[in-house]
Amino acid sequence: VIYELHEVPPFLYTIGLGLQHYLTMFGATISLPFVLAAPLCIGNNNPLAISDLISTIFFVSGIATLLQATFGIRLPIVQGGSFAFVAPIVAIMALDKWKDTCNLTLAQQRNQTEMWQSRIREIQGGIMLSSLFQIIIGFSGIIGLCLRFIGPITIAPTITLVGLTLIDAATFYSSSHWGMALLTIFFIALFSQVLERFPVPMPAFKRGKGCYVTRVHIFRLFPVLIAIIVSWIVSAILTAAGAFPSDRTNPTYFARTDARISVLETSPWFRFPYPFQWGTPTISVASVFGMLAGVLASMIESIGDYYACARLAGAKPPPTHAINRGIGMEGIGCVLAGMIGTGSGTTSYSENIGAIGITRVASRAVIQCGAVIMIILAIISKFGALFASIPNPVVGGVFIVMFGLVTAVGISNLQFCNMNLPRNIFIVGLSLIFGMAFPTWLRTGTNSSVIKTTVKELDQIIVVLLSTNIAIGGLVALILDNVIPGTLEDRGMHIWHQESSKASNQMSNEYVKEMKRTYDLPFGLSNFFHKFTCTKYLPFCPPRYDDLTDESEQYLDPETGKEYLSYRL
């Protein structure tokens, strides 16, 4: 890691790296309004409504990211629109109440603003109420109590499935032109793996020294951003030369740089999203229970993302109180998404965790800067509309690299386990294959109709959960890992939790400082909470470390041979 979690890169580097995270999550974020356009009856002839949704999603994502990185899990994790809510939205909009309201001509749809806004208000109400469940689960510590049963064999398939289940999105974008997608992959590999070791001369200025030339590892810091820009320029040249068809029905058309130019033309210069901008949200039992399925799937995904992000950032595994805060803060982000009206909830973005693996920059300040950039550029809607014109294959090439990294990070967690044991091989293999096979079958055709209970809302919850690869694979691995006999060493639990519980209550001074610096609340809030005795019962509050170095004896770790001072937790 070049810049660790608590380190702050130079100002211009921080802005550039924050912009890179913005661009990394751009493809998935702008695709969400296009996916929701059909069930919400926005129509393809209303790009301005889609542009407004894009600005709203980025605005809420910036706020949620800032809250998560500052007060939540405090890892460099980006929050964005969640696709886990798409299936419940489609199911809700298929109800008889809404099914017939979309049967209008294109000319009528252009003038029926109230039509799609009434539908999104129904979604808003469901997201807001169901997200309260996530807040309670997180801040009450219920989610943290389950972590004692989670080890590397559970986390590895869960994170691996995060990357594998995103293959369809990467394939969809790359299929517009595989040549451009491969070119983007080539540039990312060239910049991040080959040229990253060569510094580039750059002009600089310093007070007292004046202008001078310094050498900067620019390809190590900005490989994704530079690859996107270079590929975008190549695509613009090919578009001007007529290499791509001008027929919109041809899939290769979206390799053109002017394929989405209408969004840039119709969007205003400035637009400030605000709560209840589409009107007062409506509430129904079906929407609340349907969205609850999306909330549960999002929570399962986020826990895996926390561990993946900690590994790539070079940080200790997140403690229970940090995970509790992270899940609770994601619930607050979903409530904000429902209030302002993004059309979906928020969750952790796996592709941005992959960006940390490429750039090797894990600075929390970079993510916070990226969140501010999201908010500012969401208000300047023309800027967001400009980047919405990034060609599909360029986005697809970036996705292939990012999702590959996330998948590899999941597999790397198995280094803690004894993978020579048939037990571990059986659990990992079964959870991965079954986690891909069963949800794929359930989403095919009318297979979801096999789930029949007396309550339609319960059917929706069961179908969505069973259709989520991460939920199925993670659940299978969790059950088998805790049911099939195996020692803690074989399961990797001993090594996995060694750093968070060294010889019970024996911890080094360095360990205590790192845990406090990484996961404690900022602005002295941890010390403030520690003034009150009752706060030790709050599951989201950081623990109190009592320094007893004057009384304690030195502790010798038999594994590493290092001496530690005794601390009491």
Descriptive labels:
569 residues, two-stranded antiparallel ribbon, transmembrane, transmembrane helix, mainly alpha
Shape type:
globular
Which structural class is indicated by helix and strand composition? mainly alpha
Average residue pLDDT: 79
Overall helicity: 55-70%
Overall radius of gyration: 24 Å
- How do the strands of the widest beta sheet line up side by side? 1-4
Kindly give the count of domains.
2
The N- to C-terminal Cα distance equals: 29 Å
List the SSEs and their pairings.
Elements: H1 11-24, H2 26-37, H3 47-71, E1 79-81, H4 86-93, H5 96-99, H6 106-111, H7 113-139, H8 142-145, H9 152-164, H10 167-174, H11 178-194, E2 200-206, E3 210-216, H12 218-221, H13 223-240, H14 261-266, H15 285-312, H16 320-340, E4 346-348, H17 350-359, H18 364-379, H19 381-387, H20 392-412, H21 422-443, H22 456-466, H23 469-483, H24 488-491, H25 493-496, H26 509-519, H27 525-530, E5 554-556, E6 563-565
Antiparallel strand pairs: 1-4, 2-3, 5-6
Helix pairs in contact: 1-18, 2-3, 3-16, 3-18, 4-15, 7-15, 7-16, 9-15, 9-20, 9-21, 9-23, 10-20, 11-13, 11-20, 15-16, 15-17, 15-22, 17-20, 21-23
